[in-house]
Amino acid sequence: xxxRVLVVDDILANVKLLxxxxxxxxxxxxxxxxxxxxxDLIEDNYPDIILLDVMMPGMDGxxxxxxxxxxxxxxxxxxxxxxxxxxxxDRVQGLECGADDFLTKPVDDIALFARVRSLVRLKMMTDxxxxxxxxxxxxxxxxxxxxxxxxxxxxxxxxxxxxxxxAAILPDNCxxxxxxxxDKVLEYATSGxxxxxxLSLSLEDVxxxxxxxxxxxxxxxRHLPLLVIVDDGDSxxxxxxxxxxxxxxxxxxVDPNEFVARVNTQLRRHHSAKQLRSNLxxxxxxxxVDSLTGLYNRRYLDGHLARQIENHNSTRKPVSLLxxxxxxxxxxxxxxxxxAGDKILQEFAKxxxxxxxxxxxxxxYGGEEFVIVMPDTDANLASVVAERLRAxxxxxxxxxxxxGVSVSxxxxxxxxxxxxxxxxxxxxxxxxxxxLYHAKNNGRNRVILNRRMAA
Length: 455
Description:
CATH superfamily of the largest domain: Response regulator
CATH class of the largest domain: Alpha Beta
Strand order of the largest sheet: 2-1-3-4-5
CATH topology of the largest domain: Rossmann fold
Helix content: 40-55%
C-alpha cells in the first residue's frame, strides 16, 4: 500500500533516515524541518499520514498536532509522534492533542511500517465515506473541543483482577462488561450493542489474535473498533494485530490516563464513522425512494423491472405490471389545495402497500401515477389483486389535513403480463399503459387487462 507521508523533524539526519526507510518501502515522502513549514505543506498538499517529532524549537510537536486537528480540512490526517520521550504523561498529552500513536526513537522499522499502513488504511476508508457523504457530517463532531462520546465497552480479559482494574478506570460516560469466553465475545461483537472492544492479547486459553481476526471477518464486527493490550516488548504480536485490523493498542502496565484517552479517541472515531455510514445509507435511499410517499421512485423501478424481465427470460416465470392512476386528481388539488393532495397521495401509497405481497414492488411513477411490479404472477392473479386494490381505494374516503374534510377517491388500473414470451421493459409498460387508457375511457374506477400479454 502506497501513501504520501509527511516527515517533520528539526534534525536533518533524522529526516533523511526516515525518508530513506519509507522510500525503500515505496511510500511517497515529503519533509519539513519546522512546525510552521509542516503546516504550510499541509495546506498545499495534504499527506495521508504525518510522522511528527515532538521536541522542536519554536513550535513543538504538541502544538503542531493541536493545530492540525483543529483545522477541519486536516483533522482527519493521522498523526504519529516520533520522539525520544517515553513517559506515559507525554503519550497522554499527545493523545489529548489528537495524536494517533507514539513511536519511540530509535524507531523499530517493523513497527513503523505496520503502524503507517494501518493508519493509512483507516484514513482511506474514512476519506471514501466522507467523499460519499458530501459534507453531511459536521466536522465539529470529531474536534477535540467536542465532549467525549460515551459508549458500551466489552472488556475481554480472563484474569479477573486485571479485568476489574480496567472496568474501574473506564471513562465516566462509559459502561463496561467483562467477558472471557471466546464464543460469547464473538456473539457480543456481532450483536451491535457494543461501541468498542478492549481485548488482551495475553489470554491463557485463547489466541487473542485469532479472536481479533474472527471479529474482523464478520460483517457486523468489521467496523467495531478494537483496542488491544499487549505485553511490553511483544512487538511481533502487535504488528500482526495491526495487520489484522486492530485500531489501537496499549502496553502493559496500563496507565489509567492513557487508557481513558485512547478509549475516548476510539469512541469518537467510531461515532463519526458510524454517522458517515448512516448518512451514506440515507443518501442511497434518497436516490431510490420518493420523498413524499416513501415508495420506490421511477429510477429504482426501471432497474428493478429490467431485472425481473431478465429473470423471466431465463425461468419463464410470469411477471405482471400494474399501473394505477388516481381519477380526477387535478380536481382534488384545485378544490382542496396541494397540501390535501399530498396527504391523499401518502394515504394512497399506504393502501396499495398494505394490499400486496412483500415480494411485490410498489413505486410512484410520477404525479398521481403509481406502478406495482409483481414477480411470479400470471394475468388472472394480477387482475384479482388489481380489483382488490381498486376496492381498497374506493370504499373508504381519504382524510385530508382540512378539519372534517374527507374525499372519495377512485383509481383506474391497467394490467399487463409477460408470460412465455421475451419482451423488454418498454414494451411491457406500453401495454400496461394501453390498458390504463382503456380503463380511463370506459368510465374510470375499473381494472382493464391487456390480454395480449397473457399466455
